[in-house]
Amino acid sequence: MRLVTYLSADRSMRIGALANLGSSMSDRVVDLTDAAEGIRCLRELIGRWDRLGPGLAERLRTGSLPEVGPLGQVALAPPIPRPHKVVCIGLNYADHAAETGAPIPTEPVVFNKFPTAIIGPGAAIELPEISSQVDYEAELVVVIGKTASRIDRSTAMDHVFGYMCGHDVSARDWQKGRPGGQWLLGKTFDTFGPTGPFLATKDEIPDPHALDVRFRLNGRELQSSNTRQFIFPIDQLIAHLSNVFTLEPGDLLFTGTPPGVGTARKPPVYLQPGDTAEVEIDGLGVLVNPVVSRPAK
Ligand code: ZN
User: Fold this and answer.
1) What's the chain's average pLDDT?
2) Statement to judge: residues 70 and 99 lie in one domain
């Protein structure tokens, strides 16, 4: 199922799914909130998926869910607007590690974003006036489905709920130069975590390690690779992380970016006001975000 979070006419948050209805080839949004006992939050739905998921899938299949509208005309929010944790992996593509001049990591490079960085499809990435090097990074995002604590690789994929497109927006001048070499601040400015447009349950993605990942800036393709390039596959990442902290339903795992980032280009390419950023991943749609200057205080 392809799940969305959307805003209804009264601007309240609801959950939905994408459907092809009738003869139309374009996706339409159908409402899940009423069928899901009033749940308005996908993180909550994930926690109750074993009980509610099969019935929702059946109602989607039989076309008995109320239609909200064509996908392009529904106000989408981030699929998981306020995850408890946003964990990110750096340098997880062998070819990207090479372009940064960094050695191939022997264990995952882990950092994070705060939930306040998360925005949805169509929302603006805001360039802070205190950075002049805001870069793009297209990434596959794994959404955790079941609590994972001290698990091993053999069962790790049982803890995955699904996947979505993500954009790890990165202020390089804050990531690398300051403060004290920690990446956090450069990665977690507000709006630096676009996700969506939808969350695909894992049955929609038979092999998450065979997905083309692309980034386009104003229509020009600047990143193109495939998740088969991962240095650390998803099961290994989940096992590794879960031996340090507990992963919970709805937590997000950004899995690293392919080569072609702006800072590695000659001359470098950084996001500018008026740009349009697009992340596209096989089976996960296209995540489009405009780029603007951060509004004055
Ligand atoms: Zn990244």
Assistant:
1) 95
2) no
Tell me how many domains the chain contains: 2
Domain limits for position 47: 2-77
Is a pLDDT exceeding 60 seen at residue 22?
no
Which of 35, 56, 77 is the C-terminal boundary of a domain?
77
pLDDT tens column, 81-100: 999 999 999 989 988 878 77
Q: Are residues 41 and 96 in the same domain?
A: no
Per residue in 229-252, pLDDT tens? 999 999 999 999 999 999 999 999
Question: For residue 150, how many other CB atoms are within 10 A of its CB?
Answer: 10
d(CA 233, CA 211): 13
Residues 191-224: pLDDT tens digits?
A: 999 999 999 999 999 999 999 999 999 999 999 9
As residues whose CB is below 5 A from the ion ligand 1, the structure lists: 137, 168, 257
Enter the tokens of residue 3.
């799940």
Whether the CA torsion 166, 29, 212, 267 is positive or negative: it is negative
Q: Are 13 and 38 in contact (CB under 8 A)?
A: no
Query: Ligand 1 mean position to 155 CA, how many Å?
Result: 25
* Domain end marker among 77, 108, 136: 77
How many residues are present in the chain? 297
Using the mean position of ligand 1's atoms as its centre, give its distance from the Cα of residue 283 in Å.
20
